[in-house]
Amino acid sequence: MKYKLIALDVDGTLLNDEHEVTEQTQKTIQEAARQGADIVLCTGRGPQNSIPFMEQMGLSGYVISHNGAATVKVDTREVVHQYAMDAKAIVPYLDYFRKEGVHFDVNTAFQMFVDDVEGLAVEVRSMYENYLMLPSVLPPLHDLSDPIVKVTAFGQPDTMDQVHQDIAAWTPEFNILRSGEYFVDLMHPEASKGNALKQLAERRGYRQEEILAIGNYYNDITMLTYAGLGVAMDNSPLEVKAAANEVTASNNEDGVHAALLKYCLS
């Protein structure tokens, strides 16, 4: 098989709009793995709500989580690489979110924290349920035992447009990324899906031309441009399609299945 490492985004790519992996897509991924491909999920989710999809498909290996901030081994839950943020530098951003009434969560590799679990708005609680997450109450940052790898703001698209515009104008201490229509992420300046995929490929001994990446949003651009072949979903914004080498069908039309069939299994 030409492509030995296959990196798949999860939401909007692997999953349809019902947050499901279709049977057809699952079987095609399993066949690619059976023929020797190393499958890695490359997602904005944490490992705790992305590893279950690997297990559902009977796959081991790795997940690149938190948009590249933490790479985790599926079977042992070992964090093999992470980009830790400067906790003190995060404080002004959290102050801004609180002042503007913007919901946010703070993430270590395996845990997610919010200011008030019991008082979550209905739409916020629904979002966490859709993503199979249950956050804990945020303690003082200096009490966290593990490094912070990502801070995510959540809200309506026009609110996130303004948040992104506001904090992107500050001194660039972090990688500030529009990771979804309703999300803005802050991460270590070197944290990205592309950098994490490169680090994992080197660790596993794969050449760049042996890597296939499939994604659908702005946070996928770095991995699409790093991979030997970058494939954008048909439900991607135009800028993401322009960054990719090829475009496949949408996430609701088994685009991952179609791409693997065309470029790996044909």
Describe this structure as you would to a colleague:
The protein has 266 residues and is α/β, with parallel strands linked by helices. Helix content is 32%, strand content 22%. The strands form two sheets. An eight-stranded mixed beta sheet has the order 5-4-3-2-1-12-13-14. Helix 1 (23-34) packs parallel to helix 9 (255-263). The mean pLDDT is 94.
Task: Give me some keywords for this one.
eight-stranded mixed β-sheet, Rossmann fold, alpha/beta, six-stranded mixed β-sheet, 266 residues, Hypothetical Protein, Haloacid Dehalogenase-like Hydrolase, Chain: A, domain 2, globular, 14 strands, 32% helix, 22% strand
Q: In short, what is this structure?
A:
One of its GO terms (molecular function) is phosphatase activity. This protein is 32% helix and 22% strand.
